[in-house]
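User: Before I run my own analysis I want an independent prediction to cross-check against. Here's the chain; please return only the structure tokens and, at the end, one sentence I can use as a sanity check.
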Amino acid sequence: MFNPFMLVPLMICLYEILSLIVPLKISWPLKILCSLILLSGLAKSMLYRRTETGFDVLDMPYSVTVATTLIFNFIIVALFMLLVKDIAFILWRLFIRHPFPGHYASLFVFSLAIVSTLYGTYEGLRLPDVRTHEVVIPGLGRELDGLKVAMLVDIHADALTDSRAVQAIVERTNSLNPDVVLIPGDFVDGQVKSRKNDLAPLSGLRARLGVFGTTGNHEYYFDYHGWLKEIEGLGVKLLMNEHVILSSGDSRLAVAGIPDHTGSMMGVDGRDLTRALDGIPENVPVILMDHQPRDAVKNAEHGIALQVSGHTHGGQMPGIYSMVRKANGGFVRGWYNAGGIRLYVSPGTSQWNGFACRIFDPSEITLFILRRED
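Assistant: Structure tokens:
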């Protein structure tokens, strides 16, 4: 059966064969071998298949998954470099009479793409570092000053981010001794029966005041109702247009969550921030989990103190960054003032198997230290 996920990568491969491999001054048998290796990266596109409940991700041995990931990452990285090279070729032909050095240009792109792919794939697969931020929360009570809030997002547990990787993330998070853990979406990729063991280590998260989450877009692609039950069974309280009040002495802090936009698109979950905040006293500051950051300015109208989001994966690499920024209301990674509220967009704790590459965009476990106003 024809897999539509293969069409665009196939066209990209054919373009790269013509623009990258053919101009190289190597033997034709070697050119054919390089072309076949490049085309083998299309196996990555075969991972995703349509099922009755959405999409499923096919299992392959870990070594094969990593190998196809490297080749597919090379295809994407080389694409952006080749576009620059071919624009240079057009300008060269227009303004310079000497022949274009196609062999050397292709050799340069080939070498740079290999180095960038190896670096980016390593960054995508390694255990994330901890990034700590002190953030002032207006109205925060004295007893909650110094509260430690850890955030994990875009875990995407699957054949690449398997149980070993998730376990390592959990252990590093627990070593921070967080008071609260927030997980605003994209827990997993795949059906419950094939991926639940990879996400299972999440049950080991420890936080004095609780572990809370909400849905990301990927939860709706894979047996949505099954995953909600499974995730809550791991000890994660999902806040779906809901909130909880955290207390210490006379100080209180609200944590609210709203489901991802994809739920509304699929007619499963509607987003209702008003309902999520209903019942929170006016003097209690609110931290909001919203998987995608694009509604932050709109959310600010509700008096949110801090919004935490993910989804963008930090842009992943130059070239893609600008497209991600445009699709997400100008928010990609780090801190923003969004309509008067603080917004933090995490680059993600892991990576999406579809393009597991990070160039100048490391993943992270985020630790917020909440501070009261002086």
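Sanity check: The chain has eleven helices and 14 strands.
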